[in-house]
Amino acid sequence: MPASSPAAASVNSSAAPPPAARLVSLDVFRGLTVMAMLLVNNPGDWGHIYAPLEHAEWNGCTLADLIFPFFLFIVGVSIVYALDSARCTQPHGPLLGRIARRAAVLFGLGLFGALFLQWDLATVRIPGVLARISLVFLACGVLFLKTTWRQQLGVLAALLIGYNVLLQLVPVPGLGAASLEPETNLGAWLDRLLLGEAHLWKISKTWDPEGLLSTLPAVGTGVLGLLAGQLLRLKTLEAAPKVAWLFVASGAALLLGLVWSSWLPLNKSLWTSSYVLYTGGLAGMGLATLYWLCDVQGFRRGLTPFLVYGVNAITVFFLSGLIARGLNKWQVAGPGGPVSMKQWLYDALFVSWLPDPYLASLAGGVACVLIWLGVLWAMYRRHIIIKV
Fold this sequence. Notes:
By secondary structure, the chain is mainly alpha-helical. The protein contains 14 helices and four strands. Helix 1 (24-41) packs across helix 10 (273-296) and helix 1 (24-41) packs across helix 11. It is globular and about 65 Å long. Keywords: Membrane, Transmembrane, Transmembrane helix.
């Protein structure tokens, strides 16, 4: 479910895409995830979305609900591949500074995106996708530098069990017994207390799907990625055992998540502990499959579209959000009065000839993915990789 401004980014114009040292399967997995995120975030019509591409109303897990945890899992794996050699040969102080700077840039980009064309600090949404990515990146970066994989496994268990206890056993101040409902759960109360309703998700106003408390188990999703990355980096195992171990461990996490969901439901907005294990298990199995195909067997045919998305993932996520907001703000004359440019384009290009509103909405989202594919492909051919 992850860009940079010219001032905050560096352009690597000398790196060949993808560099030989890159884990191709990780770039492909990241590309697939961001393409799916773009499709889910940009339907032609929010009122007509096929069920798999729509988030679960509350409890449950659809295809759309897998995207963000997959990206956080990828963040964890990426940290391992970026820092594994450096943590053994370089002082940790500068590395921690680099992690903190990158986290701050990601958080700042999220805040800029929330303020774009609506410069109101009094009502700006503070939580958000990039804010959560920044916090998970910061926590997982520190954990990777300062702890062993066994300690990380202990941190994961503590986060998931502790969060479960908080949600289901701790009374909500001023509201009564523990609750798992949108407005009355402990996380929603904490967000209102610390951030205020003016800074929460505008659709709900009283709770936020990327709130403060639920960022704790989201760190757990990143830790699952750390563990997967360290397994794949092991020099003492051949490729086949690595894939087998990752697949088996991921399958076990998925099954544990399903069992846990019988008393703590799968829920993206709460980022429940069962949801962490279920989605992390699926992510691990997906990465294991791609690792075997791409990095072990050397399969490359037809992967370029995913690679071009994968190497510039944050860029397309950030810029697509800014452009979508701009098109929604830009008013033009329509048959029944002023409409947004986005609505005008959608009506003219899709609704005008596709009779099924669901198909037209899907076509609008696919068109968005293809347009950005063209932009990113041009960047890829010119070896342009924008890094935060």
